[in-house]
Amino acid sequence: MSDEELLAIILRTGTNGEDALSVACHVRELCGQQGLLGLHHLTLDQLMSVRGIGQVKAVKLKAIAELATRIAAARVEKDVCLQTAGAVAEAYMERMRHLEREQTLVVFLDGADHRIGDAVLSEGSLTETQIFIREIYRLALQMNAASIILLHNHPSGNPRPSRQDMLITARLREASDYMEIPLLDHIIIGDNRYYSFREKGEL
Q1: What does residue 7 show for φ and ψ, rounded to 5 degrees?
Q2: What does the domain layout of the chain look like in residue ranges?
Q3: What is the tens place of the pLDDT at every residue in 20-61?
Q4: Is 83 helix (H, G, I), strand (E, B) or coil?
Q5: pLDDT of residue 129
Q6: How deeply is 40 buried, as exposed, middle or buried, from its count of CB atoms within 10 A (0-12, 13-18, 19+)?
Q7: 121 with 177: CB under 8 angstroms?
Q8: CATH class of domain segment(s) 78-196
């Protein structure tokens, strides 16, 4: 089935002069080049600007987009093995690539590189680096983690690290040496691509 046909099933009904498929086509056009991924970025008002989309249908479409994100997040099982940057990026890509704001997350691993859990450390710009590092290791000790992986997203879609990203990585590596809980990688999530400090030989 096409994207438009799937949307039509969700919408169920159209409006005067247009059936559900026609309304679905207008929604798909509104999503732009991103396709259905664009649903993550459309507001309720934008969806309701489409003739035939009221508040109930707009909320339903946003709920489905959120559900898709949560399904992707649920795929990251607690004991999944994360030995490569590619495995980490694949596990967290759908969860982080659609975020409108920058989010920083730490993954805690056991001695066999199995995921114990993860925690969101910040939303938006990170300003208090020392507090940030202290919180990471407070949680790592609490969870009895053997190692950690840092992730954050770039809403622009370009995962290339900034100067601040490099500074945080260097400081966190120093702290990890002192705490004897290694920083295995710092991975930046972009739009279906990622940057790994470890793969680039920078960690």
Answers
A1: -65, -40
A2: 3-73, 78-196
A3: 899 989 998 888 877 777 787 788 999 999 999 999 999 999
A4: coil
A5: 47
A6: middle
A7: no
A8: alpha beta
